Amino acid sequence: MSRQNRPYRQGKGRAEKRxxxxxxxxxxxxxxxxxxxxxxxxxxxxxxxxxxKITVNGKKVTQMGLHVSPGDEVRYKGKVLKNERPVYILxxxxxxxxxxxxxxxxxxxxxxxxxxxxxxxxxxxxxxxRNTTGVLLLTNDGDLTKRLTHPRYHKKKVYHVVxxxxxxxxxxxxxxxxxxxxxxxxxxxxxxxxxxxxxxxVGIEIHTGQNRVVRxxxxxxxxxxxxLDRVYFxxxxxxNLPRGKWRFLTQKEINMLKMNAFD
Length: 263
Known about the structure:
Elements: H1 8-23, E1 28-29, H2 30-36, H3 42-50, E2 54-56, E3 59-61, E4 67-68, E5 74-76, E6 79-80, E7 88-93, H4 110-113, E8 123-124, E9 133-139, H5 142-149, E10 157-163, H6 169-177, E11 179-181, E12 184-186, E13 190-195, E14 198-206, H7 213-220, E15 225-233, E16 236-237, E17 246-248, H8 251-261
Helix pairs in contact: 2-3
């Protein structure tokens, strides 16, 4: 039968099926809903669900893989979790600011610097110690945070290091070949002088997520770091962003981060 002679009711049936499919409420896995609220990552959400700390419509749930609908009420410790819009902020972190969310000494934190960005609660992706400056990403995207901070995903970080004395070529070679730190050998992906005429300045590329790893590498060789600045993180730089200032990522940058994080 030709297309022109087909009964109209067949086309109508397909349209009705499409309409039915489109009108079905979209559901989402509970762990993703929790992560999208900015509370934690999906893996941490699974732990909360498994330990019975999440309720859906007033009932405690422990079932993994549960899906929730837009009208469902999800709570953690009595607080309603809302599916917030994802927020991505780039900060050029200044010195003497901590990246911890709670500080016993009540020092200024990176959260204080971006508090006017909006109502969404964001978290720093990884840590920079108090005296380290430079590129820091803050977001409420738990899945992206996990991908960008886990060592096995090998996300590139580049630091500009200023030392108290010239770094010898043999020490650069030793750093490239691997430095023993706490029973673990840490390798730099690349290390070189920033300016051949000033050997107190070194650029180092590394992907490990160990705490204070760059400082510990140079301290293990007898150097004292005078300045440590992260100039690159997972494709992001601080170009045209003054120290202590922040901006929202562009959509192009967000797309780049996600493509690189989940490749």
